[in-house]
Amino acid sequence: MRNPLEELVGFQLVRTAGIGLRTVNAAYGDLAIRHPDAAVMMVIEANPGISQSAIGRMLKIQRSNMVPIISRLSDRGWIERNPGRGKAIGITVSPQGQAMMPQLHAASREGEARLAAGIGPDVYAQLLEVLRKIA
After folding, report:
1. Sign of the CA dihedral with 78 first, then 36, 57, and 110 last
2. Are 94 and 80 within 8 A, CB to CB?
3. 119 within some domain
């Protein structure tokens, strides 16, 4: 049987993204966090006081999807919202969130290592370079 989609980059990217997400999410294990929430935590950690809309733009997450992510992280006590400039609210990682960040980074590295192990470090580096050009 022939799959006409096998030769399409878009199809391969979608299929590969699913595999990548499952692999990385599995590495988060005991943290009970999914990749979008982890990505938001890492962006906030790297950019203390960042606004919710700036996080969404950086990660290409729609505004309507950012609201539940920020709510989940806030409910877990991992982030804090602080008055920013004008109407903006600055978001920072809370002390409780900072305490779990080393585990989050370790789990992210583990997930990435699993992906790299499947294709080898050289191909992993090449793939990252190509994907950055697409995004």
Report:
1. positive
2. yes
3. no
